[in-house]
Each structure stands twice: as structure tokens, then as C-alpha cells.
Design goal:
By secondary structure, the protein is mostly helical. It contains 20 helices and no strands. The protein has two domains: about 425 residues, no CATH class; about 60 residues, no CATH class. Helix 3 packs antiparallel against helix 5 and helix 5 packs parallel to helix 8. It is globular.
């Protein structure tokens, strides 16, 4: 009975998380065309550059608390000790408060002595550091209260979107756009404290207890540094070695990949506390089936979306961002494999390495990837701008996946799982070729072309995958399509 309830709650959490990620996916579809046309590539590049600087300070706020907090709360919750849960929460959060205060002070020093231009924009972006300092999403993730976080985020997103259309009218409104975005984040963090007081009361903790969480956080923080180098630093180096227009191109191309990636990796966020709890109580072997199901789901989504994005990019980019951003088309083609590769590496990190306390593998992989990305950026960005940064990111992600996969092969053989699920790559490739051929015969406007291409791609992918799902009882989609097939016809009389 207990296992049944857990399965049911996992399904509901997946639904909640999927709904929110769909909202996250849809929101840029509403705002990006407007913002790209109103602000332009250069202003967007400036926004992205200043945000990339702030992200370095955000790293030190979180350390590894986002993942560590979720894991330790999930483990403590499994022991059914409310007092211990309160103690762990306050120990972890006070550590976060200390790191946040240090980061905020350091950012103030940076703005005072090193920022010469666009100081207003830098100050506004700095509010994100305060928001991160009061962020307790890790607690609600650890207790698997995804309905609450999804509802909160949904409302905040709606308010943010509405504010953008009402207040942002031209390039001069760039600071206002940045303020709207950062206040949305800040507001969403404040709201969660209103719900926390129903579950967690004040509890006295010791400095020893607080700093007992420092070491495991640092172990998770070290790979965060590596990740930032080949993600955040791309935009920073573009701004320093190229120009803000190239940053704007890279920003929008990255956004097209990040939107579906965020939806997919959001599924991993749901599985992390469940895996941590399962591994803690029953060992890794008990979670192998869950890992295989989760892998297949992630892989199927990543393959279909990556090939689909490339297939429609030629018509999608000028329709979505405007003709100023047509150079993004070729960037997206280089970026698309990152969607698949990053999905697999995130799967290993979030659902395997962190729940099993194998952060060292994660650390080694990310720093190797960071080093490769740094070298490739230095070589290619001065010559090719945004395209050079994209090559660097692709190289880094490949390196990270290979290292993580090889070092964790005894825990979970991801290479075998890729081979077992080749049907999704084949289906996605056939879909891409079909859409590419059909595109040559389309002479409508960009919007109509995109609609036809998307519908064609979905139909072709489904034609190939659905029969496989019905025939293969081990397929993660089997029961859904099998049940659909076996449903008796409705009585229409």
C-alpha cells in the first residue's frame, strides 16, 4: 500500500513539474518575440552579459545547497523525525544566509571599484543575489511538495509576463526589463516563506551544526564552478572578446535550446528526492528500474526536441525573433546536440551521482569540461564570435558526458541504455529528414511553414514510436498506448 502511494505521488509530482515546465517553455514563446524586436540584439546582449557577471556571485550563495539541501531534507524526512527535520533545515539555511551575505558584500565591492558603464543595470541585476539568499525551494523539493512550488511559479510567471508587455516599450527600457525579471524571482522566493511557517518553526542550532554541512556543500559546489565556466563564461567571454550583438545572438540561440532542456531536466528534479530516499533506505539496486524508466523518458523527449528544433529553425527563427536574428539559425544547428548530451549528463548527475553520494565523479567531469570549454572559447571566439562559443559549449558537454558515463558505468551503464533506446534517435532522424524535404515545397509565410513542419514532425515521430511502445512491454510508454489500444469502443447510442 505504501509503495502504491509513493508511486501515485511520484506520478502527480511529475505531472505538476511537467505542467510548470510547459509554462516555462511557453512563456518565452510569448515574451521573446516581443523583447527581441523591442530591445534588439545589442541590448539583449548587454542584459545577458551583466546577468552572466551576477551569476558568478550567485554560485557562492548557493554553494551546492540547491541539490544538497534537497537530498538531506529527503533523507531526514525518511526517518520521520520532525525535530530533526527542523534542525537540519535551519542549519542548512543559516549556512546559505552566511554565504549569501558574503556574496552580496563582494558584489557591492565589485560594482564600486570595477564597473564603469551601465552601473544602473548592474545594481538591478544584483537583486538576484538577495533573492538567492532567501531561496528555500530545496526544502519543498526535498519534501516533494511540487504542487506548491508549481502553483507559486505559475502565478509569478503570469505577473512577470504581463508586466513586460505593459512597461517595456523600447531599448531605453532595458533596465526596467531587468528589474521586472529579477523582481519576479525575488517575489517567488518571498512567497515560499509564508508556507514554510506552517511546517517549520524556529529552532536553536549551533555553529558546529551549521558548518557541519559546509564540506558536503563544497563537494557539490566545486562542480558548480566548472559548470559556470562552460555556461556563464560563454556570455562573459563573448562580451569581452567580441561584442554585445554576438552575445545577443548566442543568448537567443541558447534560449531555444534551454527551453525544452529545462522541461526535461525538471523531470530529474522530481526524481532526485525519490532516488535519495530510495537509495538511503533500500540501496541503489532498488532504484535501477526507476532509473531505466526515467532515462528512456528523458532520452525520448531530448531526441525528438533536438532534431525537431533543427528541422524548423530556418523558418522559426525569423518568425519568432525577427529577421535581425537570422544568424541564430546556424547557431541552433550547432547547439541542438547539446540538448541530447546535456539531458544525459544531467540525468547522471541528478538521478544517480548526487543521490548515491558520488559527487566526485560529477566534479572531475565538470572541471574537465570547463577546461576544454575555456580553451576552445579562447581559440574560437575571437575568430568566430557566437559560433566559436557554441563550439566550445558542444565540446565541453561531450567531454562531461563521456567522463561521467565511464566513471559511473558500474553504477548504471548509460551507454547500454542509449543502445537499448536507439529507436528514438532513428525516429527523430527520420522525422528531421522528412521535415527538411517538405520544407523545400513550402512557400507560405514563416508562421504557416512552422505549423506545417511541426505537425509533420509530430505525426512521423508518432508513427514510428507508438507501434514500438505497444509491442515492447518494457517501454516506459507501453501501458499508456496499450491501455488506449485495449479500450472498448464507446457506446454512442
Amino acid at each position: 500500500m505504501e509503495d502504491s502511494r509513493k508511486q501515485s505521488s511520484l506520478k502527480m509530482n511529475l505531472i505538476y513539474q511537467m505542467c510548470y515546465k510547459i509554462l516555462v517553455l511557453i512563456t518565452p514563446f510569448i515574451t521573446s518575440p516581443y523583447i527581441s524586436r523591442v530591445l534588439g540584439a545589442e541590448a539583449l546582449g548587454l542584459y545577458s552579459f551583466t546577468l552572466s557577471i551576477v551569476n558568478y556571485f550567485l554560485m557562492f550563495v548557493y554553494l551546492g545547497i540547491d541539490n544538497y539541501g534537497c537530498r538531506v531534507i529527503a533523507e531526514t524526512r525518511g526517518k520521520n523525525d520532525d525535530e530533526k527535520l527542523k534542525q537540519v533545515f535551519w542549519e542548512v539555511y543559516l549556512l546559505q544566509l552566511i554565504t549569501g551575505s558574503i556574496a552580496l558584500a563582494a558584489y557591492g565591492i565589485y560594482c564600486t571599484f570595477f564597473v564603469v558603464e551601465n552601473i544602473e543595470l548592474f545594481i538591478i541585476q544584483g537583486i538576484a543575489i538577495i533573492a538567492a539568499t532567501i531561496d528555500i525551494n530545496w526544502y519543498f523539493a526535498g519534501t516533494e511538495q511540487f504542487k506548491l512550488t508549481v502553483t507559486r511559479n505559475f502565478i509569478i510567471k503570469l505577473v512577470t509576463v504581463g508586466s513586460i508587455f505593459v512597461f517595456v516599450k523600447n531599448q531605453k527600457d532595458l533596465p526596467l526589463y531587468a528589474l521586472i525579471m529579477v523582481l519576479g524571482t525575488f517575489g517567488s522566493q518571498v512567497v515560499m516563506w509564508l508556507f514554510l511557517k506552517k511546517e517549520i518553526t524556529l529552532k536553536k542550532v549551533s555553529l558546529k551544526g551549521i558548518f557541519s554541512h559546509l564540506k558536503p556543500n563544497i563537494l557539490l559546489f566545486i562542480p558548480v564552478i566548472g559548470v559556470s565556466i562552460y555556461h556563464t563564461m560563454d556570455k562573459t567571454m563573448l562580451g569581452l572578446l567580441s561584442d554585445y550583438t554576438n552575445v545577443g545572438y548566442y543568448y537567443n540561440a541558447d534560449k531555444i535550446i534551454s527551453m525544452p532542456l529545462g522541461m526535461i531536466t525538471g523531470l530529474s528534479a522530481v526524481f532526485l528526492p525519490r532516488m535519495a530516499n530510495l537509495v538511503s533506505s533500500k540501496g541503489l539496486s532498488a532504484g535501477q528500474n526507476l532509473l531505466k524508466k526515467s532515462f528512456e523518458l528523458n532520452f525520448a523527449l531530448a531526441c525528438s526536441m533536438a532534431f525537431g528544433i533543427v528541422a524548423v529553425a530556418k523558418d522559426f527563427v525569423p518568425w519568432f525573433f525577427g529577421t535581425e536574428f537570422i544568424p541564430c539559425t546556424s547557431l541552433i544547428a550547432i547547439f541542438a546536440p547539446v540538448l541530447i548530451i546535456k539531458t544525459l549528463s544531467d540525468f547522471l548527475q541528478t538521478q544517480l551521482l548526487i543521490p548515491t553520494n558520488n559527487e566526485k565523479i560529477y566534479t572531475v567531469a565538470t572541471f574537465c569540461g570547463a577546461g576544454i570549454n575555456l580553451v576552445l572559447n579562447l581559440v574560437f571566439i575571437p575568430k568566430f564570435g557566437a559560433w566559436g562559443a557554441t563550439i566550445g559549449t558542444l565540446g565541453a558537454e561531450i567531454a562531461v558526458l563521456l567522463i561521467e558515463g565511464i566513471l559511473s558505468i558500474k553504477l548504471f551503464n548509460i551507454f547500454t541504455q542509449v543502445l537499448n533506446n536507439l529507436i528514438y534517435i532513428i525516429a527523430a532522424l527520420v522525422m528531421y529528414v522528412s521535415v527538411f524535404m517538405i520544407e523545400k515545397f513550402l512557400f507560405f509565410d514563416y508562421f504557416i511553414n512552422v505549423i506545417i513542419e511541426v505537425l509533420t514532425g509530430v505525426v512521423i515521430f508518432a508513427i514510428l514510436v507508438v507501434p514500438y511502445s505497444v509491442l515492447n512491454k518494457n517501454c516506459v510508454f507501453n501501458k499508456y498506448f496499450k491501455n488506449f489500444r485495449n479500450q472498448p469502443p464507446r457506446n454512442t447510442l
